[in-house]
Amino acid sequence: MTRKKKTEAAEEIVTAYKGFNQDLTCRGYQFEIGGTYKHEGDVEACASGFHACEYPLDVLGYYRPAGSRFALVEQSGDLSRHDGDSKVASRKISIKAELTIAGLVKAAIEYTASRCKPVDPESPASSTGDRGAASSTGDRGAASSTGDYGAASSTGCQGAASSTGDYGAASSTGNRGAASSTGCQGAASSTGDYGAASSTGNRGAASSTGCQGAASSTGDYGAASSTGNRGAASSTGDYGAASSTGDRGAASSTGDYGAASSTGDRGAASSTGYRGAASSTGCQGAASSTGDYGAASSTGDYGAASSTGDRGAASSTGDRGAASSTGKHSVAMAAGIEGKAKASTGSAIVLCYRDTDAEGDDYARIVHIKAAIAGQDGIKPDTWYQLNAEGEFVEVDE
């Protein structure tokens, strides 16, 4: 008699999302895209092991959108799950691919939709005809409208709403919900916490107003808005706009003529298309414009503004801010107390010195203001400068 071999249980592999610092480190550990790593020792959520989140937007609670990097990972070996959210600690982790904010939004929508109850084609939650409407109000429900002029609405927790036809709209108002509108001139709105809204059609709009939400609009003429804390807004189409008004949020506009605005503290705004604009108005924020003729403005204290395209402008008006212009024929201006600026050869820096010893209405009055062109009159290119009490340019550390 032949004995059957005992079949070993398959090792659980968890697909998750991980945040990193800009150098791809996490808690002092160096990672690389494509690398696989093994932890020696105990595995306990929030204590030891490699950590990542199964729900994509949960990672924003640990790594703010501004200045962080994100990746799709696979976790295996010993696993330990956190009670408060979808965080998982594991013995082994593989860093599969880097993700943008828009990629996190897409993943959040797919995550939510995959966990919803299937839509019954005969139910009011499904509408496949033109000018139809679909509504799902229960928890973990889904609403789908695939016809032109349709609308899809899911108001329960963990629900999803999808409208794929032209001129459609998708709305998810429950916690952890997702809204997606892929047709032209559509709109997607997610107002609950941890939600995501995505509009991929031309002239679409995506709005996420809950905490830790994300909004992405990838079509031309689109707009993405995230008003909750730790949210992210991304608009990748031409003429688009991205706005993030909560603290620690990020706004990114990668299309030409686009605009990115981050108004909360420690946020970031990035505009990479031509003639775009990036504005960060909160303290310790950053604004970056990498296209030609673009503008970057940081108005909060300790902020940074960077313009890397030709004929662009970088302005930092808050105290102790920094303005950098690395493109040709551009201008970098730091107008706050102890501001600094640097520019490439042929570009200009503008600095002022303010009186911080004065009192009352005279506090921070302008004593000196001076402009110079890098590469001329002793001003070194790509070197940080401040203006001293005598109105002279002095080199300062980065």
TrEMBL record:
Keywords: Repeat. InterPro entries: Collagen_Structural_Proteins (IPR050938), DUF7666 (IPR056083). Residues 124-150 have a biased composition (Polar residues). Transmembrane segments: none annotated. Pfam families: DUF7666. This is DUF7666 domain-containing protein. Residues 14-106 form the DUF7666 domain. Signal peptide: none annotated. Residues 116-150, 163-275, 298-327 are annotated as: Disordered. It comes from the Bacteria.
